[in-house]
Amino acid sequence: MQDSPEPPRSTAAPASAHHAFDHRLLAIVCAHALICQIIYAMLRVTISYRAVEIGLPAIWVGIIAGASAVLPMFMAVATGRFVDRGNDALAARLGACLIVFCCLGYRLSSALAMELLFFTAFLGVGHMFLMVSHQLLCVRASANDDSRETALGHYMVATALGQGLGPLIVGWLGGAERIPPTRLLFGLAVVFALIALVMAFWIRQPGTSKEARVAGSQVISLPELLRTRGVPTLMLASIITVTAQDLIIIYLPLLGAERGIAVSDVGALLMVRSICSVVSRVFYPPMMRAAGRVPLTVGTMLAGAAALMLLAMPVPLPVLYAAMAAIGFGVGIAATLSISNMVDIVPPSARGVALSLRITGNRVGQVSIPVLAGLVAAVTGAGGIFAIVALTLAASAASVQVVRGKH
Fold it and tell me: Is the pTM of this model over 0.85?
């Protein structure tokens, strides 16, 4: 698809306005995002271990992981239009309710193959509601473009912390065992999910809700949105970047089991990635202003690709820690930019749809790539998956440079 001319851009906000946002709203959104990401990351790792525990082959790990993307593919655009009409806070509550439902399902059912498939499918829907809600709430809590970058930076710090703490909890409870106590972890997820549900009702709708409803009534068609310059290219970059993060969470436990790496080390490796993501996102706003969107996007994606290639090699554990640190830093910033860039190039009345469309693309990648990765894993092991992800991430970075580099 060819990128069409970009609509006129507003001028940048003055430097003094960097922190011009609703602090109270941003604080509760970030806190809610933190605990929701803890739940989601903990569940994704635990589900992978549960699949190994009940003797499912590697391809089933990919199929179950891909189930989280099936329903969101059909619901994402409608969800975006719903949020664009000023239902940000309501979407967060709906997502929290679905997360509670899924956590209870994992804990109270037998958690065999079909139960894992069913509840993982609805887990993806709940996570989609939460992501769109949190991201657009951050945008609406901001007074201008510059403060939006700072608000998104804070939000991504919270998500990175959650993505690291979830696997760390799994590693802490698993210790040196090859398989952690999955039933206990599902029960712990229920407790966290109930806390997240209570917190969701603390989120108030931004004062811009009236304006949001008016904007939401100005429907922009999907073809028109897709013709906006840079949207197809950035969509592809987002798919690759987010899928790379997802596959690390899904298949690092499998890599650890293959190479005899303790559960505690697998959890620590994921935590190192998260810590470096936090560090990168703390400094994301000034880095973006200094380097520019496209150079920072391309550079961080290439750094992540090089580090992912190291995971595919039979390297010592200290090298794995270094590779995970580089992945956390590079892919962490690239993931932040995948949101910021999308919000930056579309009209304000279509931001919810654009974010949902981005999630739709991500979910397509999360349906197809984990299944294909499962086929690769059956032949090459988990290392082959990381090699393929590294190559696709590098190719996507080159595509961004070719299409957007001159801008």
Answer: no
At 273 the pLDDT is 86
Domain that holds residue 284: 21-404
Question: How many independent structural domains does the chain possess?
Answer: 1
pLDDT of residue 392 exceeding 90, the answer is no
Contact (Cβ atoms closer than 8 angstroms) between residue 34 and residue 192: no
Helix (H) or strand (E) holding 336: helix 317-345
298 touches 407 (CB < 8 A):
no
Residues 158 and 165: their CA atoms lie apart, in Å, by 11
Is 201 strand, coil or helix? coil
Give every CB contact of residue 355 below 8 A, 6+ residues apart in sequence: 80, 131, 132, 135, 136, 339, 342, 343
| pLDDT(176) > 50 | yes
Q: What is the mean pLDDT of the chain?
A: 82
Query: pLDDT tens digits, residue range 60-99?
Result: 887 887 788 888 888 878 888 888 888 889 999 999 999 9
9 located within any domain: no
Residue 4 lies in a domain: no
User: Mean per-residue pLDDT for 206-221?
Assistant: 56
What the block records as the tokens of 136 is: 């657009």
Which residues lie below 8 Å from residue 368, measured CB to CB, with a gap of 6+?
A: 66
Which candidate, 226, 183, 237, 247, places its Cα nearest to that of 387?
A: 247
- CA dist 355 and 11 (Å) reads 22
Say if residues 269 and 326 touch (Cβ distance below 8 Å). Answer: no
Instruction: Take residue 11 and report the two structure tokens written for it.
Output: 């001028």
Using alpha carbons, select from 195, 235, 256, 203 the residue that is nearest to residue 357.
235
**Integer Cα distance of 149 and 110 in angstroms:** 44
